[in-house]
Write a structure and sequence with these properties.
Structural class: alpha/beta
Number of helices: 10
Oligomer: single chain
Helix content: 25-40%
Number of strands: 10
Radius of gyration: 17 Å
Distance between the termini: 34 Å
Bound molecules: adenosine-5'-triphosphate
């Protein structure tokens, strides 16, 4: 069993007067993939935003033994938490390469940054081909790859990924999940993956949590969650 890297207790969050999360508990081990599943509007994106301080939150969040629930986003990033947001959030007017440099802007180990450029271009050869192209003109799949690669340029200990399959053709989604599998197996990074595509996420994940209207209603090893009858019927198109 790996150590717990991220420990979340009683996390609450919302927007204005409307509450979205009603006291979430979850644990992310220091390696592997933890999936956070749920229907539209369950609060998955809000959970990731709350963890990195982008929405007002309450509760106890510990990362690598340190409380982060009162820290500003930039300080959470500096501790090694990278966020691949929904909508990707690449800098449209900058080139692929400049976007990757932005991902490494808090790092001072120049040799390590150079190494990571090479490694990421090996994972994502399409990005190498398009390294001088403006990010805003990349295809949706290429932009998703760039968002993941930019987050990895931080050399994070924890990667928060929001719906990497969103709006992409099935073959592009397959490509991206194949690369994520390599990242999982080859990099020292834990991944908290938000996905509506439960089948894909459960293939990649070791552990999964199911969120319904702001509450965790089920969690366990990915195989057990996959075999859960309710999950099968509601999220895996089971019969
Ligand atoms: P989806 O898979 O559709 O993205 P989700 O599980 O990620 O759904 P959230 O995006 O976290 O869900 O949204 C949870 C609830 O919070 C929804 O009811 C949504 O309308 C509301 N919400 C999200 N962002 C805001 C915002 N900026 N202001 C007000 N309400 C918001």
């Amino acid at each position: 069993m790996s150590d717990v890297l991220l420990d979340v207790r009683g996390l609450e969050a919302g927007y204005g007067n409307s509450r979205v999360l009603f006291g979430i508990d979850l644990e992310v081990p220091a390696a592997g993939v933890t999936a956070l599943l749920g229907a539209n509007g369950a609060g998955k994106t809000t959970t990731l935003r709350a963890l990195c301080g982008l929405v007002r939150r309450h509760g106890r969040v510990t990362f690598a033994g340190k409380r982060i629930d009162t820290l500003a986003t930039e300080n959470i990033v500096r501790l090694g938490v990278a966020h691949v947001p929904d909508g990707r959030g690449t800098f449209a007017g900058l080139s692929t390469e400049e976007n990757l440099h932005m991902g490494a802007c808090t790092r001072t180990d120049k040799a390590g940054v150079r190494e990571d450029f090479e490694r990421l271009y090996e994972y994502f050869p399409r990005l190498k081909e398009r390294r001088h192209q403006q990010a805003g003109t990349l295809s949706g799949g290429e932009q998703q790859m760039l968002a993941i690669a930019r987050a990895l340029m931080l050399r994070p200990r924890l990667l928060l990924m929001d719906e990497p399959s969103f709006g992409l053709a099935p073959n592009v989604v397959q490509d991206i999940f194949r690369i994520m599998r390599r990242v999982r197996d080859e990099q020292r990074v834990a991944i908290l993956l938000v996905e509506q595509n439960a089948g894909l996420a459960l293939d990649l994940a070791d552990t999964a949590y199911l969120l319904e209207t702001g509450r965790i209603v089920l969690h366990g090893p990915a195989a057990a969650v996959r075999n859960n009858e309710a999950v099968h019927a509601a999220y895996l198109g089971g019969d």
